[in-house]
Amino acid sequence: MLRSPKFLQSSQFLHPPIPPSHPPQLQNIPTLTPFPIIKQCCKFSRRELAIGSSSSLLLLLSIQNLEPFLQSRAQAEENIADTNINEGQEENSNATPNCTNKNPTRKAFLDISIDGEPVGRIIIGLYGDDAPAGAARFSKLVSGAAGISYRRKEFIKIMPNYVQHGGVRSYGVDVELAKSTGSDLAAESLIDEWQRSYEKCPGTKNLAGTVSIIVRNPLKPPPKLKVVARKGKLEIDQEEVGIDPNGTEFAITTKDSPELDASALVVGKVLGGMEVVERIGQVKTVSENTSSPYFRVAKLIGDKRAVVAERGFNRPYSKVAVTNCGLIE
């Protein structure tokens, strides 16, 4: 007897087909967008493509051209830095012998007396190589080659750190004697030499035992302007206030004296007789009176009596003079 088709259909629903033991492989889903989609989304004209390609090419060429320039610039900066370091090292190496390790080229002597009593001799070594103008000036004044000398000239100031000699006068017989031998007491060359030494050597120049020539007055005020009548016309003239040193006064330090660096040129050092210099420093002097209100008012209004009184400060009561001087060959 044949089965009915309805029964067959129902049996198929009652018994579903058994799935296979290996599951079917899934198809790989493409992640990239197909070319037609890109073409539809982003459309470029030939002109835009040409401009983009040319700009990219120019950018690459500029980078390639800049690379050697940047390398050469960096190399040049490194070379400049190396040269600056080498120059600084050379300056530091040359600063020590020129400023501290000076060698005397000539010797001079000064015989000193206090109130007519001889106290000893001071031997000075002169720096002819480091301060040629200053050493030549001191040598001429010691030996008398300038027509005048330090002989019978006195020390005019005794300070706690140094003693100062008055030198020769800028007027009278001293100037006439200097002119007779063709000597000039101007201090311009000494000032130039002081300027070079001041800029070249840092730190204190006037150390203990050094000999220096006074070449300038740092406390001197600038010239005052005044109106004068000349040939029926009013003209503006400059009036000098104070007197510049003539480059003959010298100082011998007993201690480090940085206060002299702004006015004195170091020309030598004491080689012997330092006890004589200390003996001079023990002479009693006129005490300063700058704290007095009368002196302050007189100095403020420009009273000449204040200038005269100031010159007398720290002046020795005793006569301290050079009895004899000369060069040691």
Automatic annotation (TrEMBL):
InterPro entries: Cyclophilin-like_dom_sf, Cyclophilin-type_PPIase_dom, CYP26-2-like. Keywords: Isomerase. The keyword Isomerase applies. Coiled coil: none annotated. The keyword Isomerase applies. GO terms for molecular function: peptidyl-prolyl cis-trans isomerase activity. Residues 1-23 are annotated as: Disordered. Pfam families: Pro_isomerase (PF00160). One of its GO terms (cellular component) is chloroplast. Residues 109-327 form the PPIase cyclophilin-type domain. SUPFAM superfamilies: Cyclophilin-like. PANTHER family: PEPTIDYL-PROLYL CIS-TRANS ISOMERASE CYP26-2, CHLOROPLASTIC (PTHR47724:SF1). This is Peptidyl-prolyl cis-trans isomerase cyp26-2.
